[in-house]
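Morning F.,

Quick status update on the modeling queue. The single chain you submitted on Monday has been processed. Sequence for confirmation:
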Amino acid sequence: MKRILLTIAFVLALVNANAQTDTTAAKSDGFNKWSIEFNAGVNKPQRPFTVGYYTDTPSPWNADFAVRYMFNPKFGAKASVGYYKFAGGNGSQDFKTQYYRVDLEGVANLGRIMNFESWTKTLGLLAHLGGGYSQMNTDGQPFTDRQGNFIVGLTGQVKLSKKLVLTGDLTSITNVRQSKTFDGQSDTYVVDSRGFSGGIISGTIGLTVYLGKNAEHADWTAEDSKLKDELEALKQRVGDLEVATADTDQDGVMDSVDKEPNSSPVGVAVDSHGVVVDKNGNGVADELEKYLDKKYGDSGKSGLATTTTTNNNELIKNLINEGYVTTYFDYNKSTPTNVSTEGIDFILTYLRNNPTASVDIIGHADELGKSAYNDNLSSKRANAVKSILLKAKIDASRLNIVSGGEDTSVVKESAGARKLVRRVTFKVK
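Structure tokens below.
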């Protein structure tokens, strides 16, 4: 008995020492590996017995305790101890025998090997096989029979929670070199042989408690599921990278660092922050200004920087009417984005410098949603811009609202392209 107690103490100390070092490894694998098992039930020693001695079928009672470690979701090992009580059954000669065992066993998770996860998330099956040391003694008999044993069994599992499992176990034990019969009255060589003569079958019900900080234990972790999770995580990382490196306005600056993600028109020079280069501060990209000045302006003039000449007024008017002065909106919103209010400022400056001019304020929407709703949304966007100009003291008679409705000029499936058509443009009269 002292040997069994020392063995139990050793097993518990081993668990305590290894549980800490295993925490990091289990965490990296994504599942817990340690568990403890408690079981109790009935048994039936089959042989050898002295004539006239036997137990009931089944015979109460026995109890088992085990500590298990899973190397991966399919295979593991456990250390187990057990106590079995044998007593004379109905009609038998009276006797009381105590049987103790300590075993080391390999464990196979048949539930994962046989892909139970394809049809159930709550039922599992373990197989265990191993060997160890056992001993027994009988009340009133001056002996302790020490022997080896082989043990094999199946454990059914019902998952109650992520930390607790109900188990039902059927185990067979074969004793090696058993000297005494289970009733303790005879030597085994008298009634049988001393080799592999001793046999016990036990059935128990118990609980398994999972240890560890991860959400799931190896018993319920399917390796293909783990690979799927890793693949999904990789897809998410790739998706995040695509978003981070997207360049919606195609100005060569990623959206994640672009301070003006709706730079317009596409292709004009921007600085390292994605802001259109406009050194003279007149609200027109310098690159576009040079082009328009060359095409429409007087080569002897200074271009758009001077707004007093007829040629330059025509340049600005053409610029506005061709859609280069724009105000953008977020999805399903009628308030201009912070980075696109420069378009309104540009129109305001033009109207103040040209008091006889009037302007159509044309609202647009993308193709998402119903057409009637988008028509209404485009009107709201145009009216929002009109309200800003009215507050800036521009007479209402100079401002005309036009509902442009859905803009179908871009690919509907492209989120980046749809950003460019959620806008208000202007037409000077």
